[in-house]
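Teaching assistant here, posting this on the class forum so everyone can see the example we discussed in section. The complex has two components, and the goal was to see what a joint structure prediction looks like when all of them are supplied at once.
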Amino acid sequence: MTPGMKYIDDFRDPATAKALVERIRRDAGAAPVRLMEVCGTHTVAIARGGIRPLLSGAVTMLSGPGCPVCVTPDGYIDAAIALGTERGALLASFGDMLRVPGTSSSLEKEKGTGLEVRVVYSPLDAVTLAAAMPDREIVFLGVGFETTAPAIGGAIRTASERGVRNFSVLSSVRTIPEAMGVLAADPEVRIEGFLCPAHVSVVIGTDAYRPIAHRYGIPCVVAGFEPLDILLGISMLLRQKKEGVARVENEYSRVATAAGNRKAQDLIRDVFVPCDTGWRGIGVIPGSGLRIADRYASFDAEKKFGHPVVYAPSVSACRCGDVLKGKILPVDCPLFGKACVPEEPYGPCMVSSEGSCAAYYKYGAL
Amino acid sequence: MHDKILLSHGEGGKRTRDLITKVIARYFDSPVLSPFFDAGLLGRIEGEIAFTTDGYVVTPPFFPGGDIGRLAVCGTVNDLAVCGAKAVAISCGLILEEGLPMETLELALAAMRDAAKEAGVTIACGDTKVVERGKGDGIFITTAGIGVSVDGWRPAPSEIRPGDRILLTGTMGDHQVAVLIARQNLAIAAPVESDVAPLSGMLLPLLPRFAGKVRFMRDPTRGGVGVTLNEMAAAANARFVLDEAHLPVRESVRGVCEILGFDPLYLANEGKAVLIVAGDAAEAIVSALREHPYGREAATIGEVLEGAAGVRMRTFAGGMRAVDYPVGDQLPRIC
């Protein structure tokens, strides 16, 4: 047995979990406390761990907008399809993007009629692909948050250094704290505590949430993705509420630090600049996107092909927007489990493996 | 003999004859398998007959712990075994791609011979086709198998009732992870071997020894334990509740799954069985399984409870959640 794997077991101990659940129930008040897990990986871990029903009556866990596929707007998918069908580009993408609906189609449907899409596991794979196919334009669909941004930035830098000119990125990179700010200010959502993402925080550092804790008086706890991480994080949020304080605490101190990963931050600053960007269901959030910096403009697919991504609010019965904002639970959407299922998804929250609707559907039946 | 398979090896002429008599017959030396008859003559078989078939297209054909030949025999032997039948005879259909190294074919044939010997089954008939280069993937094998039920046992999902226990004969996901690693496009190295093995020697003696206690058996191949249990729960119209803490997973497999985001519950196995047994016999059956080399890590992984049909899991955190069929995993050929 390797020590690393033993380490995971330590965060899955049933007896400790039981004690934490009891503590959470003791510390919770008469009405359920409204906490939001911001990150899709937390959403899945909570569903897989069966944690939501375990805390029912004490804590209501709202699922946040931290699923990159889910918040990518229709216009982005439309632009990607256009680059492939009208400009002959070969698209390289993470697998999750294939079934996300655009305005009238998806990459998967177009693939069936000739659109060329390759599933890759890393942005660098797309650079390798471009180098191997010099007579094709390869466009990587750069979707993600601060965790993916350094990998996408690294791929752009590598392409630049190696002179791979037929590689570009259609960027839809977003930053989490700005979205949290919008939700914190929304009186309809009424968030009493944020369970902050583990991996994003490793990059940006836990200090990044201080403005939210201070300005909105909402406790923030950075937590890991194992069941005990999550229960301990929730317990720490309740303790803050009980003491009447709102600060940033770090349950995930075994990996995340206050300042974060400077090297990754430098890489992001080198390749990207902040911009306003549209989030599906939420709208345009100022300063919440990362566009490719002008010195790397030749790797920016929007500029290279003169085909900007247009943001327009989607119009359908799908309530992904309200789910992403924590205003309703997935089960409250009229399409959930009926017109919208993982095999035939209507909205992106049912497509992505990190989507809250998919997590509710897959693990929710009791 | 040529060092590569040629189209003419499949055309029925002299080269086909040479391939059969000089290569294949060297491995499958059985009185039943005559190169001069069109069928294997098995004679009279007493008992309740079970019959099954399967195709094997795994890529790569050789992987740590096994290969397509061993897989082709074990898969069919196991399909019979979990239905309570001892394999009597199996067929061997070879679909070879032009240009396949003769050595590759011989290694696969040797593995089939060894696995058949271990399972005590005769390879009783066969067929060989050769497809043009580019129309196959080296070697495909199909096998069909005839078995005889032990003591007339047959699967009885309708006998499953609350209080029954769910047993698994060992760790999950070894086969699929071994094949994925052997494909070498994941840039991951881990010491994982496929579990491919014939299970008849372990499972069939349980049936007379624990008469009336074993209700239902399945081998969790494609889709893994998760899908197999869903199918079993549907067949039994029963509620299965698993204990996450009791699911056996090898550390190395778990490590690979953590990195790639796979759930071992849905990974294929080729040497494991799931058993639903009477609660009062569960402990003794687990002990009996553990006496066998292929069952050393057998465990009780859950129980049958009253309530809505389907599969649920008691999690590490002490919660309860659904275990459903997976949707749309783009995993490549593994068996």
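For the discussion questions: Residues 227-243 of chain A form the longest helix (17 residues). Chain A has 18 helices and eleven strands. Think about how each of these relates to the inputs above.
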